[in-house]
Amino acid sequence: MKKKAKKIIWISVSVVIGVPLITALSYVGYVVFSYKRIGNTSLEVNGRGQSDTIENGKTLTLTTYNIGFGAYSPDYTFFRDKGYDKDGKKTSGTYGKGISREDVEKNTNGSISVIQKLQSDFYAIQEVDIDADRSYHINQKEEIENSRNGYDNTFAVNFDSAYLFYPLNDPHGKSKSGRATYSKYQIQESERKEYTIATGFSKFVDLDRCFTVNRRKRKDGKEFVLINSHRSAYDEGGVIRDTQIKELHSFRKSEADKGNYVIAAGDFNHDLLTDNPRYPQYDRNNVPYKDRIQQPKPDWLSYRFNEDKTSPFDDGFTVYAANNEPSCRDCDVVYESDSTFVSTVDGFVVSDNVEVKKVSTLKVGTGFLYSDHQPSTLEFVLK
């Protein structure tokens, strides 16, 4: 009888320990063996552009906008965002996916209405989902594309991830997402180029990263090269982002050396204003929007410029970012205009043969109404 009881206990303990262990190991195996990088690849151009000539001297507009997969209404917080409140208490976001399908649809449609309102010549849009649990499988690429008649467009998958079971109360799930580029002028060639990303286990949460290159040849034989970029955000100490800065600089400089007109637009996940020599009023002690921020700078945010207002990766280029409105809010807490940490991480890196007339950020509603980002627009002329 005692032997039978011991056997039952042994079996029960084995089940209690073994089943979760086997499940965990199976999941890790699934994540590891399903992981793949997309790599460098040419992209299909969907032709709707109305003009084939970009003229010298004509003022053009380019908008960059991270729509945040339609999740980020002002009351949304994201599980990977962590920080501190004004009293020094640790804060952390909650959700792994959009609050509801209805909320994601509302924010997606709202972002589309903002895009339509701007009527720019070019758009660089990031965090556009095509099939993702986090956005309830709404095809945002298709919805935006249907609103952009008269524009050529290209789309690059940024990542096609395995199912992420974290956070346990609201799993992020499986995501297929990327970036879309739109142009009133016909795009002749487009390609996806991969960034270096984190190694080890971190690569499974950092996901894949890339930038896209879109080309339009001019009558003088030179090309207008529009780059759509979205860098890593949560790499510790910004080490991976620094590597990505070097990679993008190397590519864009090789294009500028040919005499091409080059603009890199996107979400750079760096503070683009502090210590920027174009804005001498900002430094580490006098950060942008200081009068409206009560939270300290979050750990994920890195500075783009050195404290002596230099950068080793801008020879032949200038970084332009708007300072009339912030382009990004932190998402460890719900958005409040008089306290939440805000910054400018979205902007443009422009070659010296492009004249910039103006750069501005549009305040959406009372601020960040449909995304944790707000659209920034560059007015420019090809010299």
What topology emerges from the helices and strands here?
Blueprint: H1 2-34, E1 41-42, E2 60-66, E3 82-84, E4 90-92, H2 101-118, E5 122-132, H3 140-146, E6 152-160, E7 175-183, E8 189-194, H4 203-206, E9 210-217, E10 223-230, H5 239-256, E11 261-267, E12 270-271, E13 302-303, E14 317-320, E15 328-329, E16 342-343, E17 346-351, E18 354-361, E19 376-382
Parallel strand pairs: 2-5, 10-11, 12-13
Antiparallel strand pairs: 1-8, 2-19, 3-4, 5-7, 6-7, 8-9, 9-10, 11-17, 14-17, 15-16, 18-19
Low-confidence stretches: none
Biggest sheet: strands, sense, closure?
7 strands, mixed
Biggest sheet, strands in spatial order?
A: 1-8-9-10-11-17-14
* SS class: alpha+beta
How many helices? The count is 5
Overall pLDDT, averaged? 90
Principal-axes shape call: globular
For the record, give the distance between the C-alpha atoms at the N and C termini, rounded to a whole number.
93 Å
Number of strands: 19
CATH fold topology of the largest domain: Deoxyribonuclease I, Chain A
Provide an overview of this structure:
The longest helix is centred in the N-terminal third of the chain and has 33 residues, at 2-34. The relative contact order is 0.16. The chain is an alpha+beta fold. The chain has helices spanning 2-34, 101-118, 140-146, 203-206, 239-256, and strands at residues 41-42, 60-66, 82-84, 90-92, 122-132, 152-160, 175-183, 189-194, 210-217, 223-230, 261-267, 270-271, 302-303, 317-320, 328-329, 342-343, 346-351, 354-361, 376-382. The strands form 5 sheets. It has a 7-stranded mixed β-sheet with strand order 1-8-9-10-11-17-14, with helices on one face. A 6-stranded mixed β-sheet has the order 6-7-5-2-19-18.
